[in-house]
């Protein structure tokens, strides 16, 4: 299945070990939306306001870039895990937090590189 066809909520739930419908889906959507807002602020060129308002939302509704969406999917899983079900061990929590920060940075750099390339910029500024 292409990342474009993936259901955002279900993908994030699978990453954090939750399968099927859950009574706290709305809470998970809140955390996913918080993370999407962060990505919009660092320059991810979403098609429209990045909001997973319903449980049936797919990645194709946000963006057409499969490579960037792969990074975004992993980032959403990490951030949602940290917000919804933080690990009790501080070493594990710190490792996940660092991985999320690195993913965020990589997404930002990828967006900067793609925008810079598409805008026709050169090394002379």
Question: Which helices and strands occur, and which strands form pairs?
Answer:
Elements: H1 8-15, H2 25-41, H3 66-84, H4 90-118
Describe the protein's architecture and organization.
- The structure is a single chain.
- Helices cover 58% and strands 0% of the residues.
- It is mainly alpha-helical and 125 residues long.
- The chain is built from 4 helices and no strands.
- The protein is globular, with a radius of gyration of 15 Å.
- The model has no long low-confidence stretch (mean pLDDT 89).
- It has helices spanning 8-15, 25-41, 66-84, 90-118.
- The termini are far apart.
- The chain has one domain (3-112).
List the keywords.
globular, 125 residues, mainly alpha
Distance between the termini: 41 Å
Largest sheet: none
SSE order in H/E notation? Answer: HHHH
> Segments where pLDDT lies below 50 for 5+ residues?
none
Overall radius of gyration:
15 Å
β-strand percent reads under 5%
Mean pLDDT: 89
Given the helix and strand composition, which structural class is it?
Answer: mainly alpha
Total number of β-strand segments? 0
Question: What count of domains describes the coordinates?
Answer: 1
**Shape summary:** globular
Number of helices: 4
Helix content: 55-70%
Please sum up the structure shown.
It is built from 4 helices and no strands. The protein is mainly alpha-helical.
């Amino acid at each position: 299945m292409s990342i474009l066809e993936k259901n955002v909520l279900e993908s994030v739930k699978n990453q954090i070990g939750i399968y099927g419908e859950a009574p706290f889906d709305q809470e998970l959507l809140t955390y996913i939306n918080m993370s999407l807002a962060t990505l919009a602020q660092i320059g991810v060129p979403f098609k429209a306001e990045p909001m997973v308002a319903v449980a049936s939302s797919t990645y194709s509704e946000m963006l057409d870039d499969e490579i960037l969406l792969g990074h975004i999917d992993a980032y959403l899983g990490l951030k949602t895990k940290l917000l919804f079900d933080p690990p009790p061990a501080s070493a594990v929590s710190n490792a996940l937090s660092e991985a999320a920060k690195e993913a965020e940075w990589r997404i930002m750099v990828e967006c900067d590189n793609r925008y810079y390339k598409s805008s026709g910029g050169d090394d002379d500024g």
